[in-house]
Design a protein that fits this description.
By secondary structure, this protein is α+β, with helices and mostly antiparallel strands. It has 8 helices and 7 strands. The longest helix is centred in the last third of the chain and has 24 residues. It is globular.
Length: 245
Amino acid sequence: MPTPMDHAAARQDLAATFRWTAREDMHEAISNHFSFAVNAEGTQFLINPRRHFSHMKASDLWLVDANDPESCRGEGAPDPTAWGLHGSLHRHVPHARCAMHVHSTYATVLASLADSRLPPIDQNAAMFYNRQIVDEDYGGLALEDEGTRCARHFQDPSIRTMIMGNHGVLVIGETVAETFMRLYFFERAARNYILALQTGRPLRELSPEIAEKTAGELDNSSETEAEFLAEIRAILDAEEPDYIH
């Protein structure tokens, strides 16, 4: 039987991202979920239970099997939308090793607009050029049918960010560091866009050629992603070291 600290490195990385998401006020207390696949097939994954993001510890995370609904049941289990959305992703999208879903303020404002695309108006937004999709068919809570529908949007491996219309944002990636950096910068890019819209003045949008060039340059940033998460962990190691337990 697995123990609470199997896959310790992945657990600690995930726990750090929960803590930092709370610091950035991108969380919904005990709602929303981050998951990370730990087997080769991508069907066994770590995910958070009903615990406030600011209190999350590595040992709190559940190890769930996307092919076994019973693995996500029991005392203190993740809520049904964790199984519905993340179970479907890890079952149907093998390249989604990590998945992070939040209702952060600016991403959700963007998801509430009739046109929810994030245009390339700055360098951060260019990261998502031709790498985002808008889900325009919100169907209620992300239970199993809704989760399966959402998973279909990620069949193209180039799509790593889904703006969930009337809902929030969902980001996938290969590593915890990659996925969290993308989630973090999506929220910042959405914030810049919403604030720019509020001026009522014309936007300076990058050309398709420059937007794609910039996105391509930012695609190859695994070293930066690792450093990004390492610096977050260094701060938490000093200020909230219990996250690793």
